[in-house]
Design a protein that fits this description.
The chain starts with 9 loop residues before the first helix and ends in a 14-residue tail after the last helix. The model has no long low-confidence stretch (mean pLDDT 93). Helix 6 packs across helix 7. Strand 16 and strand 17 form a beta hairpin. The protein is an alpha/beta fold. The strands form 3 sheets. It has an 8-stranded mixed sheet, sandwiched between helices. Strands 12, 13, 14, 15, 16 and 17 form a 6-stranded mixed sheet that branches. The protein is 36% helix and 25% strand. It binds zinc ion. The site of zinc ion (ZN) has 5 residues, from loops. Zinc ion binds next to loops.
Length: 472
């Protein structure tokens, strides 16, 4: 292991964990001239990344469904008339990919919103007031946006990415409650899935408002709705401050032209330097309800006057989030999302006991896989054990390591090394091994604490057992 190593970037961690294919990887047979074979700024997740993304999708969909959102799935491609209606062709065209199909113009969606509004309109047309408000849709939505090639970087700045995207269509009287719920969702997700604290020490709220004199010019809509929306955001920020001590700032004139917003900003330490990381956003939109004529329709069906559309994302771009998170956590993915969760390490000695060690190791690994975990054996020799552990810790970082040596077999226990996400360090424990079944049961009991957070979030521990032994 080289001593004078440079600081790792998120792409180093992502590559070591087998989450992504490096953009400059050489594809055998096809050759180097195809360097960017998926295209610049289009991340390609590798097999570990497939596990990570599939589990994350499942957790996010269930999390939102439990909290009153309808999960939706909308197409990547749309007739460009949808984006003409939404205004994107007018205001966002330079970031959109457009193509011609049989003489008709199509757009690759840069945002999911217009489709979500279409779904609302569709359900309203069919079910009228039986559709209850606030109406909330959630999508793990893949979007594509043009970025100049010079600005592309790893997973942080890309052209193809995925949002944990939701839209809330709410009567204005219920907007405050909706915003407070989103903040609670954000806190729950960060604390329980990512082991990141969301409190007065770590985050602040940044409110971006209009400049009142410019409403009707730079800021679309009318003064009353801006003022009502901004007051609602201040009320929400005040309540969050009262309950949790989290401070907020107001930046006048910084709103998007279509509405004010709250960003949740986390301060993180990186190599002794404080950096700001925007972790979630709640954004009002006065443009879409006008363009899709929601005010008239909602008024007709529900008899409601004031209506808001709110866009919100808890992680934003999942690719960018992963990149920042890998650097923040130094490559420590949550247990439930780790490509390799458990490394079982038989420690050979070169003596007769080795066969017994191998047998125990095999049955423990098989037992863990049968219980739904991604476990694999990593052989080590007694004299080279510390090197094996260092290599694992440097690259794959399995949150749980199970050691089986001559001592363990003779005395009937397993030695566990478990990453403690709260202490940010490892703890060592022993579990009984009178039979392999008892050993597996002991390991499962010890790792159960690593799953408490996800259990709180979605009421279960999602599992995707897969043979990841090729990684070791
Ligand atoms: Zn949106």
């Amino acid at each position: 292991m080289e001593e004078n190593r440079r600081e790792k970037t998120h792409m180093d961690y992502a590559y070591e964990l087998d989450l992504v294919v490096k953009p400059d990887s050489q594809v055998p047979v096809i050759g180097r001239e195809f360097g960017h074979y998926s295209g610049a700024g289009i991340p390609l997740f590798s097999l570990g990344g497939g596990i990570y993304r599939s589990l994350l999708n499942y957790i996010l969909v269930k999390f939102h469904t439990l909290r009153g959102y309808y999960p939706v799935e909308t197409p990547i491609l749309a007739s460009s008339s949808l984006f003409r209606l939404s205004g994107h062709l007018e205001f966002y065209k330079k970031n959109m990919f457009l193509l011609d199909i049989e003489g008709h113009e199509y757009a690759i969606k840069p945002m999911n919103c217009p489709y979500h509004i279409l779904l609302f309109l569709h359900e309203l047309a069919r079910y009228r007031s039986r559709v209850s408000l606030p109406f909330k849709t959630f999508e793990v939505g893949r979007v594509h946006r043009y970025e100049p090639s010079g600005s592309l970087y790893g997973l942080l700045r890309v052209r193809a990415f995925t949002q944990d995207d939701a839209h809330i269509i709410t009567p204005s009287s219920m907007a405050l409650q909706s915003i407070l719920s989103v903040f609670t969702e954000m806190k729950d997700l960060y604390e329980n899935l990512y082991h990141m604290h969301v409190n007065s020490e770590t985050v602040r709220l940044r409110l971006s408002f209009s400049e009142h004199a410019l409403i009707g010019e730079e800021f679309m809509g009318d003064k009353d709705e801006w003022i009502e929306a901004e007051e609602t955001l201040v009320k929400a920020a005040e309540e969050i401050k009262k309950a949790q001590g989290i401070e907020y700032t107001i930046e006048e004139g910084e709103a998007a032209f279509y509405g004010p917003k709250i960003d949740v900003v986390m301060t993180i330490e990186e190599a002794g330097v404080s950096k700001e990381w925007q972790i979630g956003t709640i954004q009002f939109d006065f443009n879409l309800p006008r363009r899709f004529r929601l005010y008239e329709l909602v008024n007709e069906i529900y008899g409601i006057e004031g209506l808001f559309i709110i866009h919100r994302a808890l992680q934003g771009s999942l690719e960018r989030f992963l990149g920042v998170f890998l650097e923040y956590s130094k490559g420590r993915l949550p247990f439930v999302l780790s490509p390799l969760q458990i490394a079982v390490i038989p420690i050979k000695t070169g003596e007769e006991v080795d066969e017994a060690i191998a047998q125990v190791s095999r049955s423990i690994t098989e037992g863990l896989i049968a219980s739904g975990y991604r476990a694999a054996e990593v052989e080590a020799h007694k004299t080279g054990l510390s090197g094996t552990v260092r290599r694992l810790e440097y690259t794959l970082k399995p949150p749980v390591q199970v050691y089986i040596g001559a001592k363990e077999v003779a005395r009937g226990y397993l030695s566990l090394r478990i990453f403690d996400y709260h202490a940010r360090s490892h703890r060592n424990v022993k579990v009984g091994l009178s039979t392999p079944e008892e050993g597996v049961k002991g390991v499962l009991e010890e790792i159960s604490v690593l799953e408490d957070g996800v259990r709180r979030l979605v009421g279960e521990v999602p599992k995707l057992p897969a043979d990841m032994s090729f990684l070791t």
